[in-house]
């Protein structure tokens, strides 16, 4: 038998192009890409030891794939069939798992568990879970939705999204909402700090020290927030907040305010204030559509970064923390980027309505 350590590797033009494609294409399996690089290196010349040194791999690896290529050419670089346990789960059982998961529920329950379904189909719970993962099924999860019944849904979506994507010239756009009843909570025991391998720990129960309401106006262009703390969120409190926005906004700019349909936003006292300040224009979001108000995204950051794990031993501590959070945010303000057009949102709502309006619903 010829010594493959010295036998030259001569490639045809077709083989060279194929090997270069395997060696450089990202979608190629990692093992096949390495084998292609080994053969290409061998074609440049040199012993197995020299090629192994250039590629920083073991010489036996080079010897194996050089000999297989010389014997079988490109076909020799593919993986050979490997021994293993024969398949025990039939296509019919896979289909039964999927169909039962999608179309049936177990007796006396609302959804399948892997053990209940495994017992019905006659396979192991691990196999059921593997099939669920392959088909993207998660029967233990559920989500909620609400379709807005607002008769002006389409007009309001176009109005609000238009302010995000194409704001008027010489104008400031604010997304406004209230976060009511923010609780000042302290734990009944001191918080235990995080340690290597141990997360921060806190007692399950807590003590309430009062509540405060937060009015927030997010400037959609700059990301900065105007905040105001209040004991309540009545119409006159909302009016006073609008006055605060008026004081902090450049006099020459028109002001467009995006807010929800809370009755306090439409009260006579607010209407009278708007008549006296004609540069202000209110834009209302559709009912049950808080997701379209960008300030809700800021409230989510506030909850996650400041309130969720905060410990406030008094109402004053809570107020100081909220004011500090707003100050820190404004020092590093960044706007949220709105990407969906009004037509994309409306089309998605229409598709969802089609799905839930069929005979099965």
Q: Helix count?
A: 13
Radius of gyration: 33 Å
Number of strands: 5
CATH topology term of the largest domain = Nucleotidyltransferase, domain 5
What is the CATH domain class of the largest domain?
Alpha Beta
- Write the element-wise H/E pattern from the N-terminal end onward: HHHHHHHHEEEHEHEHHH
The amount of beta strand, in percent, is 5-15%
Instruction: Give average pLDDT, whole number.
Output: 87
Describe the biggest sheet? 5 strands, mixed
Task: Tell me which CATH architecture of the largest domain applies here.
Answer: 2-Layer Sandwich
Tally of distinct domains: 3
Question: How would you describe the shape?
Answer: elongated
- Please give the order of strands in the largest beta sheet: 3-2-1-4-5
CATH-defined superfamily of the largest domain: Ribonuclease H-like superfamily/Ribonuclease H
Terminal Cα span:
74 Å
Oligomer category? single chain
Which blocks of ≥5 consecutive residues have pLDDT under 50? none
Percent helix: 40-55%
Organism: Nonomuraea aridisoli
Protein name: IS630 family transposase
Domain Tc1-like transposase DDE: 189-319
InterPro entries: Homeodomain-like_sf, MscS-like_channel, RNaseH-like_sf, RNaseH_sf, Tc1-like_DDE_dom, Transpos_IS630-like
């Amino acid at each position: 038998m010829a010594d493959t350590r010295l036998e030259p590797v001569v490639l045809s033009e077709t083989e060279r192009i194929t090997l270069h494609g395997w060696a450089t294409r990202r979608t190629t399996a990692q093992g096949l890409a390495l084998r292609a690089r080994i053969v290409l290196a061998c074609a440049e010349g040199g012993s197995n030891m020299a090629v192994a040194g250039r590629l920083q791999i073991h010489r036996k690896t080079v010897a194996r794939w050089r000999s297989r290529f010389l014997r079988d050419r490109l076909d020799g670089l593919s993986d050979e069939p490997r021994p293993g346990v024969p398949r025990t789960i039939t296509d019919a059982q896979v289909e039964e798992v999927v169909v039962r998961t999608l179309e049936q529920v177990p007796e006396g329950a609302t959804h399948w568990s892997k053990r209940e379904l495994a017992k019905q189909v006659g396979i192991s719970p691990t196999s059921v879970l593997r099939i669920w993962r392959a088909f993207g099924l998660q029967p233990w999860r559920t989500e909620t939705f609400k379709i807005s019944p607002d008769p002006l849904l389409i007009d309001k979506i176009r109005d609000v999204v238009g302010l995000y994507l194409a704001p008027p010239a010489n104008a400031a756009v604010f997304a406004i909402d209230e976060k009511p009843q923010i609780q000042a909570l302290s734990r009944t025991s001191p918080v235990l700090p995080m340690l290597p391998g141990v997360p921060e720990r806190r007692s399950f129960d807590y003590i309430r020290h009062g509540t405060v309401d937060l009015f927030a106006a997010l400037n959609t262009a700059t990301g900065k927030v105007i905040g105001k703390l209040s004991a309540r969120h009545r119409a006159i409190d909302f009016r006073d907040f609008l006055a605060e926005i008026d004081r902090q906004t450049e006099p020459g700019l028109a002001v467009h305010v995006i807010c929800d349909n809370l009755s306090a936003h439409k009260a006579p006292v607010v209407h009278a204030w708007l008549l006296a300040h004609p540069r202000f224009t209110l834009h209302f979001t559709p009912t049950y559509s808080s997701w379209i108000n960008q300030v809700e995204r800021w409230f989510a950051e506030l909850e996650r970064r400041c309130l969720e794990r905060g410990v406030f031993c008094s109402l004053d501590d809570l107020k100081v923390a909220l004011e500090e959070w707003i100050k820190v945010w404004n020092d590093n303000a960044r706007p949220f980027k709105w990407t969906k057009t009004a037509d994309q949102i409306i089309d998605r709502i229409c598709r969802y309505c089609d799905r839930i309006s069929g005979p099965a619903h």
